[in-house]
């Protein structure tokens, strides 16, 4: 089996009206995100991790923020598209792990639905998707409640094509 690891990171500033879109879930909050799309930082970080694992660039290259067709788009559409891209390359998500960094709003009530939503969009079992949240003890832009950041890592698994062999570095 071939494996690839990718890491993604995204940040969005609060602004406008809520709710927030996070990991495909509408989280009640008095503000939304300032973004070209729906601003779902969790999905954006995950997409970057998936694309990075296969050296396919980042979401900005695939979905430019100056392209009108992506304005206010539901980021779940972007995630499903990225998932289709990795499947066409012969890979699938083995597991992913996301950490949401936010002082507010509280994430705990939404974590299970976030995991279920991401798993459904990726076509994997919910136990292959981890979503966690932490605060910064009121430090930094997240701690000042100016926005949210998300870190994501993903392990992609691919099958060797017939006749291929894994190369081992000596």
From TrEMBL:
The protein's enzyme class: lyase
EC number: 4.6.1.12
Record-marked site positions (Transition state stabilizer): 36, 135
Catalytic activity reported: 4-CDP-2-C-methyl-D-erythritol 2-phosphate = 2-C-methyl-D-erythritol 2,4-cyclic diphosphate + CMP
Gene3D superfamilies per record: 2-C-methyl-D-erythritol 2,4-cyclodiphosphate synthase (3.30.1330.50)
Residues where a divalent metal cation binds: 10, 12, 44
Cofactor mode of binding and number, as noted: Binds 1 divalent metal cation per subunit.
Keywords: Isoprene biosynthesis, Lyase, Metal-binding
Transmembrane regions listed in the UniProt entry: none
Pfam families named in the record: YgbB
Positions with a binding annotation for 4-CDP-2-C-methyl-D-erythritol 2-phosphate: 10-12, 36-37, 58-60, 102-108, 134-137, 141, 144
Domain 2-C-methyl-D-erythritol 2,4-cyclodiphosphate synthase: 3-156
BP term (GO), one: isopentenyl diphosphate biosynthetic process, methylerythritol 4-phosphate pathway
Pathway assignment: Isoprenoid biosynthesis; isopentenyl diphosphate biosynthesis via DXP pathway; isopentenyl diphosphate from 1-deoxy-D-xylulose 5-phosphate: step 4/6
Function: Involved in the biosynthesis of isopentenyl diphosphate (IPP) and dimethylallyl diphosphate (DMAPP), two major building blocks of isoprenoid compounds. Catalyzes the conversion of 4-diphosphocytidyl-2-C-methyl-D-erythritol 2-phosphate (CDP-ME2P) to 2-C-methyl-D-erythritol 2,4-cyclodiphosphate (ME-CPP) with a corresponding release of cytidine 5-monophosphate (CMP).
Family stated for the protein in its record: Belongs to the IspF family.
Subunit and partners: Homotrimer.
PANTHER family: 2-C-METHYL-D-ERYTHRITOL 2,4-CYCLODIPHOSPHATE SYNTHASE, CHLOROPLASTIC
Name assigned to this protein: 2-C-methyl-D-erythritol 2,4-cyclodiphosphate synthase
Protein's organism: Psychrosphaera haliotis
Taxonomic placement: Bacteria, Pseudomonadati, Pseudomonadota, Gammaproteobacteria, Alteromonadales
């Amino acid at each position: 089996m071939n494996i690839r690891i990718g890491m993604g990171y995204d940040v969005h500033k609060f602004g406008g009206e809520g709710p927030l879109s996070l990991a495909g879930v509408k989280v009640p909050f008095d503000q939304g995100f300032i973004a070209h799309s729906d601003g779902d930082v969790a999905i954006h970080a995950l997409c970057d991790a998936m694309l990075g694992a296969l050296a396919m660039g980042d979401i900005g290259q695939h979905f430019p923020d100056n392209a009108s067709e992506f304005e206010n788009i539901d980021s779940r559409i972007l995630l499903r598209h990225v998932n289709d891209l990795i499947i066409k390359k012969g890979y699938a998500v083995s597991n992913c792990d996301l950490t949401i960094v936010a002082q507010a709003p509280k994430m705990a009530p939404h974590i299970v639905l976030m995991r279920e939503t991401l798993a459904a969009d990726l076509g994997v079992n919910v136990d292959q998707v981890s979503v966690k949240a932490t605060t910064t003890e009121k430090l930094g832009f997240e701690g000042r409640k100016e926005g949210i950041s998300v870190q994501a890592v993903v392990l992609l698994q691919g099958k060797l094509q017939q006749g291929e062999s894994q190369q081992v570095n000596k």
